[in-house]
Structures are given as C-alpha cells and as structure tokens.
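hey
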C-alpha cells in the first residue's frame, strides 16, 4: 500500500513531499509505526508493508488515522 498526502489546496509538491518524509521520520522516532518510503512518479510516498495476514481492518484503520493525525500536526507546526 502506498500513501501520498495531497492537500488539494494548492500546496506545492515540494512541501507535500517534505511532509511525507517528516511523517515517516516522526512515526519511526516515536515508535508509533515503522513505515517505509519509496518513490512513485519521482515523488516520495509512504509504503506500508503488512507482514501479518491476520491484521484486522480496525488495526489498519487505526494506523491510517495515526498517519493522518501526524501529518496534520506537522503541517500545523511552525517552521
């Protein structure tokens, strides 16, 4: 599963790409999640590799909410 944040509000791609990388780094540093990063169409995207075939929809939903919350926090933080 690949995730690329898009604001849809005219935010430039460079800022969106930096936010994706910052989200990954923050989640790793805090121990909240280990998420990979790869490139798609030349841009960084978050890569989720699900190793446990028993992962539930609820667990996946919680992970996606964690990613979204982190992105919101980082995008609102002063530069």
């Amino acid at each position: 599963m690949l995730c690329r944040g898009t604001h849809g509000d005219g935010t430039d791609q460079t800022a969106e790409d930096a936010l994706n990388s910052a989200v990954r780094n923050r989640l790793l540093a805090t121990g909240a999640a280990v998420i990979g990063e790869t490139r798609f169409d030349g841009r960084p995207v978050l890569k989720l590799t699900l190793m446990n075939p028993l992962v539930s929809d609820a667990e996946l939903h919680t992970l996606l909410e964690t990613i979204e919350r982190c992105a919101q926090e980082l995008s609102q933080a002063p530069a």
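The chain has a mean pLDDT of 86. The radius of gyration is 13 Å.
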